[in-house]
Amino acid sequence: MRAHCKISFAKLSLGLAVLAVAAAAHAYPEFQQNIVKTTGRAVNCAFCHTHADGPEGAAPGQIGHLTLAEQAELGRARAAFEPNAKPASPILNAFGNHIINSIGKKKFLELKLVPAQLAGALPKDSDLDGDGIPDATELAMGTHPLLKSDGDPWLLFQANFRSNLTEIILAFAASVIGLWGISHLLHGFAVATAVEDEEAEESAE
Questions:
Q1: Residue 137 contacts residue 156 (beta carbons within 8 Å)
Q2: Tens digit of pLDDT for each residue in 74-112?
Q3: Amino acid 198: pLDDT
Q4: Angle of helix 68-78 relative to helix 2-23, nearest 10 degrees?
Q5: What confidence category does residue 135 fall into, taking pLDDT thresholds of 50, 70 and 90?
Q6: Which of 139, 145, 108 minimizes the C-alpha distance to 32?
Q7: Among 86, 106, 157, 180, which lies 20 to 30 A Cα-Cα from 197?
């Protein structure tokens, strides 16, 4: 009987813990709505969360699917009020955790009132997907900071041009040298042909 009571109590405690965490879950749609409004891009919660529908639910990446260890990690991440706490929230993706680590949960909550200022608060040198466009710029433009293929075409072209500038210069130099060599080779053939023609004419005379 006691064992049964202990098991029931454990299940009840686990259920209450899940409900408590779920009750504290917020997707902060202000930021998503601001992106849609200012950029016209139809982004979903997967911009910052692990699940496209946000943190609330029982699917993988949502509150109701978390293990006890993940719930504990979520609690620690929620307590990251100051920057550089290195949160690892299981309901946030790498960009979401990067935001909290960069500015802290306290500043993040303050920016709910002015969501357009979030991009300006992020580090200018961070580029999580390595596409050459800073995460702050991608946030402001509504392109995904974790998708290398998702970015403003002109900015992607500029970034690729800069990153491949050495190869472009070498290829251009090789082309110029190659054309110069070919032109001199053709000129040499022309001169040789002219000399042969002159010798042939002289022999005929």
A1: no
A2: 999 999 999 999 999 999 999 999 999 999 999 999 999
A3: 75
A4: 40
A5: very high
A6: 139
A7: 180
The answer on pLDDT for 23 being more than 60 is no
Phi, psi values for residue 49, rounded to 5°: -100, 165
pLDDT for position 9: 47
Helix (H) or strand (E) holding 172: helix 165-204
Under a CB-based contact definition with an 8 Å cutoff, are residues 41 and 142 in contact? yes
Nearest to 139 by CA among 46, 49, 35, 33: 35
Residues whose CB falls within 8 Å of the CB of residue 95, separated by 6 or more in sequence, listed in order: 47, 48, 128, 135, 144, 145, 146
How many Å apart are CA 111 and CA 100, to the nearest integer? 12
Q: Which residues on adjacent β-strands are paired with residue 49?
A: 92
Nearest to 27 by CA among 72, 3, 57, 1: 57
Q: How far is CA 196 from CA 191, 192, 200, 201, in A?
A: 9, 6, 6, 9
Round the CA-based radius of gyration of the chain to a whole number and report it: 31
The residue written with tokens 């709910």 in the block is: 112
Residue in this structure with the two tokens 């920057």, named with its chain if needed: 83
What pTM value is reported for the model? 0.71
Residue 100's nearest CA partner among 127, 126, 77 is: 77
Q: What is the DSSP letter of 87?
A: -
Q: What does the DSSP 8-state code read for residue 122?
A: S
* CB-count burial class (<10 Å; 0-12, 13-18, 19+) for 130: exposed
